[in-house]
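Protocol step 4 of 6.
Sequence for DegV family protein (Halolactibacillus halophilus) entered exactly as in the expression construct, tag removed. Do not edit the line below.
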Amino acid sequence: MTIQLTTDSGADVPKHLQAARDIKVVPLFVRFGEEQYKSEDFTTKDFLERVSTGKVFPHSAAPSPQDYYDTFKAIDPSHPIIHISLSSGVSASYNHAIMAKTQLLEEEPGREMYLIDTKSASSGMILMLEDAVQMMEQNASAKDIAHHLESRVPYLRTVFLLETIDNLISGGRLSRAKGAIAKTLNVKLILHASEEGKIDVLEKVRGAKKAHRRFHELIGEYIKDPAEKVFVMTHGYAKEKCDNALDKVRARYPFKHIHQAETGPVIAAHAGKGALVMSFFSDLSHEEKK
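Step 5 output, structure tokens:
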């Protein structure tokens, strides 16, 4: 049975992987004042250039329930759908996908559909998609894959190291109070997707060099044996910086597979140029780590 994977553009799945694995992507939107564009209308380079030269700060917006409905409806009814969603903690995307699923199942109750709230974004969503693809290659059923992915969400870690937190503050993803403290004390914030899927401060580190060192050290505190695990890192139009970071990861942690991708405009709107976002599955769940 053919299983159809779908996601949204918060996932930052490169186009060649979308094509190779037949992943359908529902685009989010970016807004500059009254102007709205699909995220796919920009390259990350062009988007960041507009941000740096423009006077209006961009905001992201979720696809409408109709956008999801149209995507789901167009898929062969005999193909089970597994949708990997941007965190409900930062976007209405997941809730809109739920609305679309409800409507479609009222019309076509025989459909098999599973929606996964990853409580993550960018590299974390890529990691979940990779997990799904591996199980599909082993001929697992859609139900088993969906159950597995749901069980993995509490173990998913997504950690951010940004060049600037101005975008997060302007976009309302980080409080101005936390931002002001960081700037005043020359503190670099290491951020993460919390248990609720919101962007929160994981650690505060003095100085950029110490922050980068701590960024890599954290992996070892979450994983004892990375040999059978997959690691994903995305970057905000900073491939050389990402390459250097991954060289350090490879030297220290023998992951089974390492994937790299560039953040799209949606994530770049919040994380900014030069951001590094890494994801992996921790040995302990959020609850167990407390």
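Step 6, annotate. The domain at 155-289 is CATH 3.30.1180.10 (Hypothetical Protein Tm841; Chain: A;domain 3).
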